[in-house]
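Fold sample X.
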Amino acid sequence: MNRIFGRGKPKAPPPNLSDCIGTVDARAESIEKKIGRLDAELLKYKDQLKKMRDGPSKNMVKQKAMRVLKQKRMYESQRDNLMQQSFNMEQANYTIQNLKDTKTTVDAMKVGLKDMKKAYKNVKIDKIEDIHDQLEDMMEE
């Protein structure tokens, strides 16, 4: 039947939380670089404005600086949003890891309890009491 209908595309594995965190962090770094370039551009415009006299050319430079400033604010907003997403995913990842660790601990405790029960069955309390009594008798003599 596969020859007639063909095979479906293999399903992609579900997204891994660590991979998503890395992707979001990389995008945030990319936006951070853009913000750095815009800062340099704003500094350049600021220096130009200091040297210029009032007039239409100064107003044009102000408009360019305002456009760059709006872009910078937009990028900062996007970066903050990405950083919040990354933080939320890291919190979820931490919680998942903590639950896995707790499960491992509980499993180890169950195995330990079984071993203790087996060992306790081998210990005869009557023999221990007899030995203890004999030791006390020897100490009294």
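Fold sample Y, listed below.
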Amino acid sequence: MKKHYGKLDKDTPLTIIEFKIQDKFKDEISSADFAYGGYKATEIAKLALTHGLDLSEKEKDILKTLLSTGSIRKTARQIGSLNKRFMIRKILKKVFNTLVKENIITPKIKRRV
């Protein structure tokens, strides 16, 4: 405990929580899977460009860069800085919602609200 938390005195109150695994997922589900209905960011970008969605030239360029780099992080670095990830995700969410609205795709994973 001292190694992880630093200075602990004998009077320092501690709470220890133990977890027990109930069920294991067969396939790992990442938080990124939920953002785009189970599709990868690159799949969404490819579908958007293939189906000629109404996008600005800047948005198209960013999606093309995403396809070439394969990741949001690498794309952000290439177009400026890691701070651009938010902008890229915003474009992807917009495109995903448009693809669903136009019945081009159906979400593989549905979000519970």
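Sample Y note: The chain has a mean pLDDT of 88.
Also: DSSP finds six helices and no strands in the chain.
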